[in-house]
Amino acid sequence: MPFRDLLNQAKARAEGFATQHGHGHFPGLQQQQQQQQQQQQQLANPIAPPPIPQNKPISSSPAPTPYWTPSFDPSTPVSQNFKHQLGAHGWGNNELQNYTSDPINSFHAANNTLVVRAIASSGTHTSARLTSHRTLERARGSLLVVARPPAAPGIWPAFWLLPAEPFSWPADGEVDILENWNADEMNHSCLHWGHFNGEDHDKHRVVDTHMPGFADREHTYEFVWEQPEDGQGGRMLWVIDGRAVMKAGIPLGLRSMADWQVIINVAMGGNVCQGKTPADGYYDLVIRELKLCEEPTGGWTRFERDWAAAPEGHAS
Q: In b/e form, how buried is each residue of 51-69, taking b as 16+ CB within 10 angstroms?
């Protein structure tokens, strides 16, 4: 019998044996059957993706490195990082408070926080207004503050920026980062560079962010700026608790952002508070962290994404 016929017969006997006994002795056939069974099981029971390894960080964006962080250690005088602005002349707004340098109105607490305390007592109103010795110093960067403001009728806490003296207000500009009055649960992010009447009326840019119970816990406020080296034009971005809430172009003619300083104060009464007078007691603006950084949280790539998505400030 030819060899080919012998081979075919052997193959036929082997296949018949496998069919009779329900299994095969050919590795290729057995492997194919196992693969088909596995595919059927996968279709019936999809496999969930593997869990995220616990030893890897959720975010790959490191915290930005600060180029200025004032010390809030109780042994450090507030005056080391801030100038006390003094006076009870109404501050252009018919405000009630007398700003003092008394340690009762501004101090570093035992938990390494900076406290600006407004006090109302039997018709006397005292508070503090601090201006940083340090300017922003950079053509671009980020200012970040973690703070818990007070909230009450007649109380106006603020964390904001003005150009270093001497300056011309409002032509040189003003930036408001944390601002609230009369416990209205609104944070007012603002850019001002003109008066509120006539041809200046539309120069202001404002976004009000509703923050229910905002005085019950800390919030993180971040202000990001970038300008050409000549200090003309550029962009500003306001961020609260990681969410970009407002953007605005930097108007031509505004003082270079490198010249601006941080201001922290708690005002009382006045036109902005609609004449409301605070009840007797003390009202603390507590700052746990304050820093100037070369780049914003998440880096400049995130800044571009936030800029594209953030709402434009509107005329106030």
A: eeeeeeeeeeeeebebebe
Distance in angstroms (rounded) separating the CA atoms of residues 261 and 165: 9
Judge whether 105 and 265 are in contact, CB under 8 Å.
Answer: no
Task: Pick the range with the lowest mean pLDDT from 13-17, 29-33, 71-75, 235-239.
Answer: 13-17
Residue 145 is classified by DSSP as: E
Q: What's the CA gap between 96 and 124, in Å, rounded?
A: 8
Report, in angstroms and rounded to the nearest whole number, the Rg of the chain calculated over CA atoms.
Answer: 33
Does the pTM surpass 0.85? The reply is: no
Q: Vertex 27, ends 25 and 31: CA angle to 5°?
A: 120
Q: Considering the chain, what is the average pLDDT of its residues?
A: 84
**pLDDT for residue 120:** 98
Six-digit token string for 187: 């944070």
Q: Is the peptide bond before 53 cis (omega within 30 degrees of 0)?
A: no
- Where are the chain's structural domains? 69-309
Secondary structure string (H, E, C) spanning 72-97:
CCCCCCHHHCEEECCECCCCCCCCCC
H or E element: which one contains 162?
strand 155-163
Count of beta carbons in the 10 Å neighbourhood of residue 293:
20
pLDDT in tens, 23-68: 333 334 344 445 545 544 443 444 444 443 343 333 445 678 899 9
CATH of 69-309 among 3.40.50.170, 1.20.120.430, 2.30.30.100, 2.60.120.200: 2.60.120.200
| Cα gap 22→41, rounded to integer Å | 21
Q: Classify residue 81 by its DSSP letter.
A: T
**Residue 141: pLDDT over 50:** yes
Collapsed DSSP state (helix, strand, coil) of residue 32: helix
Contact assessment for residue 149 and residue 137, using Cβ atoms and an 8 Å cutoff: no
Residue 289's Cβ-side half-sphere holds a number of Cα atoms within 13 Å equal to 13
With a pLDDT cut of 70, the percent of the chain lying above it is 79
Q: Which residue, among 295, 180, 315, 297, has the nearest Cα to 246 in the 3D structure?
A: 315
